[in-house]
Structures are given as structure tokens and as C-alpha cells.
Amino acid sequence: MYYLFIVNIKVSVVIPTYNRYEYLLNAVNSVKNQDFKEFEIIIVNDGSIDKNYYEKNLNDLNVKQIDIKENQKIKNGFASDAIRNIGIEIAQGKYIAFLDDDDIWLSNKLYKQYNLLESSQNKMSSTDGLIGQGVFDPQKKYKLFNQEFYFKVISKKYKNTKFFKRNSLFSKFEYPKIFDFSFIEIHNCIITSSVMIERELLQKIGMFDSSLPNGVGDYKCWLKALEYTNCDYISDPLFYYDATHGEGQNYK
After folding, report:
1. Are 76 and 44 a contacting pair, CB within 8 Å?
2. N or C terminus of the chain with fewer C-beta within 10 Å?
3. CA atoms of 214 and 13, how far apart (whole Å)
4. Is the pTM value of this prediction over 0.85?
């Protein structure tokens, strides 16, 4: 294991992975193809048995690959959040952005989020995305994750709240441009692969709680963060979520 350090890192991209090397390559390439270039990629390999992780080590100028000898979920019962914490601990960027190993980013994601946060009082941002099955095909039509695929489900969650817009003609739910604690407390509308957040804030709140199961630890982390900041929401789809999860350990 070795690390190559570069200067002017503004965003650290943390990708936990286990036995999904081919999917991981797609995720990494989607980061390398970003319009925004001042980033580092931190891959945390959670004891994969796939030899490609070791024979084709991905370390280069702005990629660090950390190889954990034993899978932490099997050994200690830790979920993916514990693996993300390892990446956060060595990150150098002002901001941390998370990406699951079987998801990808659209090319303008980092640019839009970084510039939004630099001009905002908030320290966290999330976005809408696209959802589909299998490897992303830019020629295919996909549904929006929040605003289409899960919209009916989420609308019901907020039906009797202040976030449901009503007037004499109609009533409907609309995603606010800024997520605050009261909004996310009702339902977790923040997808991990969409998040960019200040590293200092993550450290302040103790990062992720590794004792919690997948799907709970990230939600608790967002709620803790929202005690100190609001979350700027970008309604544009800036990531692709593979609903099939590929093969191997589910890190969503």
C-alpha cells in the first residue's frame, strides 16, 4: 500500500468497494472524467478476494487505494460506513464526496456542487440522480431518482407537513431547494452517492457511526450534520444509481 499526494486538492472522493472491480472501474472513470479536476480519489478495498484489486492496483497521481486485509463486515460486523470513515481519515480536500462502487457520476457533478458550496453559507449538498439497472448507457432514457421514481412514495411521507404546497386549485409536494433538519427528519431524501460535505464538519460530528447497519448509519450522519448546517439541493440529475447493485457486498 502506498499513497501519492498532489497539491490543490479541493474535493476528496471516497469510494468503498468489495468484490466489484469491473463496476469500480466505471465509478473511478466517471470521477476522472469530471469537468472539475482538483480532486483526489480514495478507494477503500474492504478485503476483496478478487485478484484484480491487487494485480491491477489503481494508485496513480490522484488515486489512493487502501487495501484492508480482512473484510470488516465479516470480521467485526462493520457496515460500509466504517469503511467510508477510513477514507475520510486520510482525505486532504476541503470537501468529501461519496460514491458507491457500482454508481457513477455525470461529468458536471463536482463542478456544480463545489461552486454552489463555495458561494453558499451551507456546508453540505445533495442532488437528484438517474436510476436504472445495470451499467449506465448515455443513450437510454432513465427516470429521475427523487422526482420520478420515488416521487409518489415520498409525496405520501410529506402529505400532512408544511412541505406539501396547497392553494385553492391544487396541492402537491415539491422538493425544497434547501434541505433542513425538519425536512430530512421525516424521510431520508439524501442519496449517499450525491453528497458533498465539508470534511471539518464530518470530523466535528464524529463521521459515520460504524455500529449501525447499512442504510441507517448514513441517515444518522446526515441528521447530525443538519444540526450544524442546511443542505443545498440540486434538482438536476448528477449521478446514476444502479438499482441492481452489481455483485458482491452491498455498499449502498
Report:
1. no
2. N
3. 19
4. yes
Task: Judge whether 60 and 31 are in contact, CB under 8 Å.
Answer: no
Which SS3 state, helix, strand or coil, does residue 196 take? Answer: strand
Determine the pLDDT at residue 179: 98
The residues with which 14 forms a beta bridge, in sequence order, are: 42, 98
Q: Which H/E stretch holds residue 36?
A: none
Q: Which residue in this structure is represented by grid cell 491491477? A: 56
CATH superfamily of this structure's domain 11-134+177-242: Spore Coat Polysaccharide Biosynthesis Protein SpsA; Chain A (3.90.550.10)
* Whether the Cβ atoms of residue 244 and residue 134 lie closer than 8 Å to each other: yes
What are the sequence ranges of the domains in the chain?
A: 11-134+177-242
C-alpha cell at 1: 500500500
User: 77 φ, ψ to 5°?
Assistant: 80, 10
Grid cell locating 55: 494485480
The C-alpha atoms of residue 25 and residue 243 are separated, in whole angstroms, by 18
The backbone torsions φ and ψ at residue 223, rounded to the nearest 5 degrees and listed phi first, read -65, -40
Residues in Cβ contact with 60 at an 8 Å cutoff, skipping those fewer than 6 apart: 4
152-174 per-position pLDDT tens digit:
999 999 988 888 876 645 567 88
pLDDT of residue 3: 43
Mean pLDDT of 119-140: 96
What DSSP character marks residue 161?
S
Place of cell 462502487: 101
Average of pLDDT values for 1-5? 44
